[in-house]
Amino acid sequence: MSVQQEAGVDGEALEVWIDQDLCTGDGICAQYAPEVFELDIDGLAYVKSPQDELLQDRGATTPVPLPLLTDVIDSAKECPGECIHVRRVSDSVEVYGPDAG
Question: Cα dihedral sign for 96, 97, 99, 101?
Fold first, then answer.
């Protein structure tokens, strides 16, 4: 199974994004899933593309790789800023994070 395979709830693809306005710069996400999250020079966390590029646009999303699903979910749960949002790609419904049902 390659890291490129995307995670999903019931097989649905998931993506993750960070609200930098709420980011506290703790870096917990980068410790849990450094393949997905990275702190930039501004001290805030951003998601990275599957090609390992830092995505600095507001609301930028990246696919959640299946092997890292638990790490990404734990990041969202442990984030003190509650700024990590994991949602379904198909309908943009948040499944983990502060806005999850």
Answer: positive
The helix/strand/coil state of 72 is helix
Tens digit of each residue's pLDDT (9 = 90 or more) over 14-31: 999 999 999 999 999 999
Angle at 79 between CA 8 and CA 90, to 5 degrees: 25
Domains of the chain (ranges plus CATH)? 14-96 (3.30.70.20)
Query: Distance (Å, rounded) from C-alpha 31 to C-alpha 75?
Result: 9
Helix residue ranges per DSSP H, the chain: 28-32, 69-78
pLDDT single digits (tens) 63-100: 999 999 999 999 999 999 999 999 999 999 999 999 99
How do the residues of the chain divide into helix, strand and coil, expressed in percent and rounded to 5? 20, 25, 55
